[in-house]
Design goal:
The protein contains 9 helices and 19 strands. It is of the alpha/beta class. The strands form 6 sheets. Strands 3, 6, 7, 8, 11 and 15 form a 6-stranded parallel sheet that branches.
Length: 411
């Protein structure tokens, strides 16, 4: 009896506990959104060490060598500077040192080309950048007493006229690109008038000539025909008062800049170096006058960089490059472009040095001066290149007596 009572008591207790358990999911009916439970703590993660990657040595890239071609002068170049004046059709006048037939000019150009000459600029001469094709030689053409239309003129389409000397040279260059196209025009703006009316055989002064001249000068600068100072009125400097020398130069420069402004290109003045050609090839008579000449400063603030003489028909003199020993920019010789001089420079051209070429290999693409000099020295030491003057886009280098140094113009 007692056992039955206890058994009933235990059964009741079990039923009571079962009624306190939550219903199964299939039995729950939700009538409201459950309340979100916010965790008050996060479990501490178990740290697992990452595997150490295997050591792989970095690959060293082999520098790519760079090869550049240099123009090399194993001997200093000999540079004729020829001085032309006026030009005329073959049916007019007598050819002389002052007047050259256009037909004779064409013959001159062919002779220069066949003798291995290539034109360079006065800036090239003064900078030492004597760059011509391999096996060719430098030549400079200048024209004094500019601007006459027979020297340089444009046609009705604004292109250089083939009836003028500059046009003749330009057309020759189009047929022979390795001849180059560089011309220096030494101008006197005070006593020269530009003929802008072409009749079929000659040019005459007409209304609008100043504008025509301005356009001609601008076309020239755009195509490497550069104007320089030959004084305003072409005086004998040895007969001029010392105090009048610089005004002659300044007035000429002023007129040139007025023409550039008339052409709509006043900025072209900044492209022009301050070079002076002596009228009649004569220096001032006194030391003070010479100092006045060489100390002149142009409107852009640039001092005279070079003075060009004239003559030498009977005592020929050649110019040397700026890097040559004894180079004097204040005494640069020119020779009149007459038959005897042209014969002299063409018949003797083969005795003058010509440009060579040498490949300079740099160990990397670095083109700094130190790397270039080291590469030149290595090539010379290895017998691959000669000593001499090396002309590269990055500059001029002198390789002599076992050393290589950069060249920089002194003025």
């Amino acid at each position: 009896m007692r056992f039955s009572f206890i058994k009933i008591l235990l059964l009741s207790l079990a039923l009571s506990l079962a009624s306190c358990q939550p219903p199964l999911a299939s039995e729950q009916v939700s009538t409201a959104a459950p309340t979100a439970q916010i965790a008050t703590s996060l479990p501490t993660p178990t740290l697992v060490p990452s595997p150490t990657p295997p050591f792989v040595p970095s690959q060293t890239q082999t520098p790519t060598p760079l090869s550049v071609n240099a123009i090399v002068w194993a001997a200093d170049p000999v540079i004729p500077i020829l001085n032309y004046h006026r030009f005329t059709p073959n049916s007019w006048d007598e050819t002389s040192g002052m007047v050259r037939y256009i037909g004779d000019l064409k013959t001159d150009l062919q002779a220069f080309y066949d003798s291995g000459y290539t034109l360079i600029s006065l800036d090239d001469l003064l900078s030492g950048n004597i760059r011509v094709p391999v096996e060719r030689r430098p030549l400079i053409l200048t024209i004094d007493d500019a601007y006459f239309a027979n020297q340089f003129s444009l046609d009705d389409q604004g292109e250089v006229s083939g009836f003028s000397a500059v046009g003749t040279i330009y057309r020759f260059t189009q047929e022979h690109p390795d001849f180059g196209f560089e011309i220096a025009m030494f101008a006197n703006f005070g006593d020269k008038y530009y003929g802008n009316l072409f009749t079929g055989t000659w040019w005459y002064l007409a209304e609008g000539w100043q504008q025509a001249l301005a356009q001609t000068i601008a076309w020239g600068i755009e195509h490497h025909v550069y104007p320089y100072n030959h004084t305003y009125l072409h005086p004998h400097l040895n007969e001029l008062e010392d105090a009048q020398i610089q005004p002659q130069l300044a007035l000429n420069d002023q007129n040139l800049r007025e023409y550039l402004a008339l052409a709509g290109h006043p900025e072209y003045a900044s492209l022009l170096s301050n070079y002076v050609a002596l009228p009649y090839g004569v220096l001032p008579a006194t030391d003070t006058g010479k100092q006045q000449l060489t100390s002149y400063v142009d409107p852009e603030g640039d001092p005279v960089r070079a003075v060009f003489e004239a003559g030498y028909e009977y005592a020929p003199a050649f110019a040397s490059a700026a890097f040559s020993d004894g180079f004097d920019p204040m005494h640069l010789p020119r020779m009149a472009a007459i038959p005897s001089v042209i014969k002299l420079i063409t018949e003797n051209a083969s005795t003058f040095p010509s440009a060579e070429s040498c490949t300079v290999t740099l160990p990397t693409a670095s083109m700094d001066a130190q790397s270039i000099m080291a590469a030149i020295q290595q090539n010379i030491s290895g017998g691959l290149c000669p000593e001499g003057i090396y002309i590269l886009e990055e500059g001029v280098f002198i390789a002599r007596d076992g050393a290589v140094t950069p060249y920089s113009p002194t003025n």
